[in-house]
Amino acid sequence: MQKPSDIWVTPKIPALDQVPNLDDPTDWSTGFRKWTPAALFSIALYFACCLLGILTLPNSIWDIETREITLVIGALGVWRYGWWFTHAVRAYIYGRFVYPKMRRQGQKIWDSGWRPRHMHFMMTTYKEHRSITEMVVRSIVLEIRNSGVPGTIWLGSSDRFDEDIIINFLEREAADIDITLRIIRQNVSGKRAAIGLVLRAMNRLPVHEDDLVVFMDGDFILAEGAVSRCMPLFKLYPDLQACTTDEEVICIGPRWIETWLKMRFAQRRLAMQSHALSGRVLTLTGRMSVFRAKNLLQLEFIRLLEADHLNHWLWGDFRFLSGDDKSTWYYMLKHGAHMRYVPDAMGYTVEVIEGSGMDRMVQNFRRWSGNMLRNGARAIKLGPRRMPFFIWWCLVDQRISMWTMLVSPALAVMATVMQGASYIASYLIFIAISRMLLSLFLFGYSRRIEMAYPWILYLNQLINASVKVYCIFRLSKQRWSNRGNQSAGMDGGSLVETARNLMANWCTAIAVALLVLGTVHYANLVPIPTMTTIQAALGM
Predict the structure, then answer these.
(1) Residues whose CB falls within 8 Å of the CB of residue 477, separated by 6 or more in sequence, listed in order
(2) Distance CA 303, CA 196 (A)
(3) I want to staple 180 with a disulfide (CB 3.0 to 4.6 A). Which of 41, 152, 331, 344 is the partner?
(4) Which contiguous run of DSSP H or E holds residue 530?
(5) 206 touches 184 (CB < 8 A)
(6) What are the DSSP calls for 132-168, one per residue?
């Protein structure tokens, strides 16, 4: 019987050798090429439709019954959009001024002949499609060949099928370069175990403290020059301990899911450049990050990756299933390490969407949000003295924004109940205009202009906030469909587990109720009962 990998059709990948050119004003990622007349006309038509709606639809947002609601929604909007604008300004400074200088200095070091002693690639894979695995390995081989230095692929594997594909490919297409494949077959399941075994193998072999190790997933295809743009920065900055890179998505699935993922990556570019201005990032993505080997050889680092866990007041002590990139990031943050984002070191993530696109979207949110929540609280506890204040406040803001995002739709629904459809129509126009304004920033970090961004952005924010509220009381419940559909904490058969689930449901209900009641009171929809009103209600 054929495996899916044997009959897989190779996906079409756009120009792997094209990376953002920060000095080229016509480049897709930074300049004006994407702003075609058709795109500008579409944006103008979009705003014209919004203006037409404002002029023709009934407007009740300033009626005396709903004025306070409008003011609360507006105040939240000013705060959130001000924070977004702050990120946009910081990202512009990093992308236009700070990083280009770093890049030129790093390129000068590379052109002068400096090379790392050895290139190490730590790669994990699990029953990946054959064509994807071959493209990943081909991109590694190209980086090693272009650098002219020896390289080693450290493969964390759990299946002979993946190993045979890589062995055959290297024998066929990499005989002319000095490359070693070291296969570390894992004896327990999970990506974390695979990485831990690889790092322990590195400790037993001559990996030097100043060597650089590329962490990458088995579905991440390096664009040409990705590694050579990262490694000179470690020579340029002796205190640099890790850096992470840009991503683009190749989606094999519904068109709307592809648009959503591309929008997410545009958001990621903006946020990463803003964070990197402070010499830190908020994640060292497992897709591709580069580490100084001295950190990976520490037992604390290895144990954190292998067995990272959390002791929760409700769920007790439980291990993290996914989120290895958050564990490596937390280790670096805890030790005050200098981290950077390299915007022109690119790679392509292959996302194969099987089944329901909406189900996959929610699953991804549960995994991403769960990883963020599990690590965010302990990172905040490190305090602003352990990291730049801006980074610490970004972590705090992640916890606040998941609640504030739910306030405006809750108020809009209440106002609609009071005023009828006219208020929800005005609210939808507000969403249309505000999300398009935010999308104008995202267009600067996207390969092309997508007119669906405003509404997908709002859907993204709404679902993400809802999933976070759900996950924050269920941190032990984890599912990862990418590696054999692993799950943890999902079985609720025991009496203790049933009681915990009931408590989680109770906490969620109380939190949501307090959010709604606090919101309606702040908007002067419901006053706080006085003793007189309580006595009157009780007939006293």
Answers:
(1) 370, 471, 488, 489, 490
(2) 7
(3) 152
(4) none
(5) no
(6) HHHHHHHHHHHHHHHHTS-EEEEEEES-HHHHHHHHH
Q: How many CB atoms lie within 10 A of CB 205?
A: 9
Token pair 């189900």 in the structure block, residue:
359
CB 312 within 8 A of CB 246: no
| pLDDT band at residue 482 using 50, 70 and 90 as cut-offs | low
Nearest to 8 by CA among 352, 261, 483: 352
List the one residue out of 65, 224, 215, 60 whose CA is nearest residue 139: 224
Find out whether 140 and 222 touch, Cβ atoms under 8 Å: yes
Rounded CA gap, 47 and 429, in Å? 10
Torsion of CA 195, 381, 518, 499, to 10 degrees: 60
The reported pLDDT for the residue numbered 8 is: 42
As a whole number of angstroms, the distance between CA 83 and CA 507 comes to 29
Q: Tell how strand 316-319 and strand 309-312 pair up.
A: antiparallel
Tokens, residue 333: 């943050």
The whole-angstrom separation of Cα 49 and Cα 228 is 47
Least confident range of 15-19, 38-42, 128-132: 15-19
Place of tokens 């100043």: 210
Buried b (16+ CB within 10 A) or exposed e, 258-274: bbbbbbbbbbbbbbbbb
Give the tokens for residue 518.
């606090």
Three-state SS letters, 328-378: HHHHHHHCCCEEEEECCCCEEEEEECCCCHHHHHHHHHHHHHHHHHHHHHH
Q: Are the C-beta atoms of residues 68 and 523 closer than 8 Å to each other?
A: yes
3-state secondary structure of 151: strand
Tokens 């609609």 belong to which residue?
A: 416
Nearest partner of 6 among 110, 92, 130, 103, judged by Cα: 130
Residue 420 DSSP class: -
**What DSSP character marks residue 210?**
T
Query: What is the number of H-type helices and E-type strands within the chain?
Result: 17, 14
pTM: 0.89
User: Pick from 450, 459, 463, 397: which is nearest to 431 by CA?
Assistant: 459
User: Is the separation of the CB atoms in 126 and 484 below 8 Å?
Assistant: yes
Dist. CA 360–CA 480, nearest whole Å: 11
Residue in the structure block whose two tokens are 């002979």: 160
Sheet holding 220-222, edge to edge: 220-222, 347-352, 248-252
User: Which tens digit of pLDDT belongs to each residue from 487-523?
Assistant: 566 565 688 888 999 999 999 999 999 888 888 777 7
Q: What's phi and psi for 155, nearest 5 deg?
A: -100, 115
